[in-house]
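Figure 2 data, in text form.
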Amino acid sequence: MTPKRVGTLSLALCSLSLATGSAWGQESLLDIYQRALQNDPAIREAEAAYLAAAEAKPQARSALLPGLSLGAARSHTFVDIAGGAVVGGTGEVRGTGQERETDQNSWSLNVTQTVFDWGQFQQLKQADKILARAQTEFELARQDLLIRVANAYFNVLAAEDTLASQVAAREAIGRQLEQAQRRFEVGLIAITDVQDAQAGYDDAVAAEIEAQRQLATTQEFLREIIGEYVTELAGPVDDLPLLTPDPANVDEWVETALRQNLALISTRITADIAQDAIGIQRAARLPTVSLTAGYNDSRSDQLSTIFFDDGTGQTLPSLVRPEGYNWSLDIRVPLYTGGFNRSRIRQSVYEHRAALEAVERVQRQTERATRDAFLGVTSSISRVRALRQAVESARTALRANEAGFEVGTRTTVDVLLAQNQLRLAETQYARSRYDYIMNVLLLQEAAGGLTVEDVEQIDSWLQQ
């Protein structure tokens, strides 16, 4: 049975467009992801690497196609020769010197064709796998971008929640401090209660400053991905659906992940490429056959001048016009390369062995990540529900402590502790909701099925 999407929601794949934000000025997760697709340097780098790797196929194919070359040359030669020159067929030497000028024009057309080269055939087969690996790694980079965007997005929301909680705590403790000072002035409490309230207020101010710094840091991480700052992000709705994985059997998710996980697929293709490399290196020991054919045409104009003792000279022009064609069938059989081919074969065998070990390593990592993500989804559901109840309990406890403080049965310290417990429960509850969403995405990524559909599903859980 193939695992379905987490829960029962199934939304159609939408066409990507530039992010525009919602009518209220808030950016959703899909908006940020669309911006990242346009602006993230890592995804553009992955795209360029994919396009570069895709050139392996035409390069390997070109080695098996005919090669055509055209050549042309023009030259001029001047030679000054001391002594006489042989004239005619009698062998008579005449004159005291000679000058010779030659103008030559030539051109040639050559064709080469591989008839048999087993290594080149193997490289063409290997090129298909190199292209498949490049496509897989590019898709993996897009999944990684989605995870990075979601992680940065929800980290910003978590930092905003923490800051809001710290601001509320500072304001509440400030009111508590003012009340304690008034009660001290009329003699209802001791000075120690005022000092406790002041200490709590100072701690709240320091915590608020740290929360502001943490928010700025998380916003910088998001800006690093999309290239600009975003101040308004849509948070989860109050009734966030907590959907269990479907199917609910972790072994079925693991089985799917071992078939579809992109990192594992890429590693397996790498092992196949390494195995092909062994055959390519062994092919270097086999004969190669190639066919070469050519046509050439040239014109050589020569002007020779013979000088005599009486100062006169004789000019003898000549014209040579060679034209012809040639072809050859070349067979090369490697006999001995000083051990180079043997060493390259051994190297390829070791690289294939390393690739097989990498497959085993990534396979184990995939199984561990899938089980961990599955457990993360199921456990975070229970954690969200428990922390939701913890927030309600902390609010009730704070109201009880504030009422007790009014009648004198609770101290300032009791109220401060109750306020801190409420803020902690609120931030933990908000963080647990983000963790649940992230675990849903991580489970889909581990299973190899993380797509923009999942971003759309998460968007349906956000306040629009």
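Caption note: The mean pLDDT is 85.
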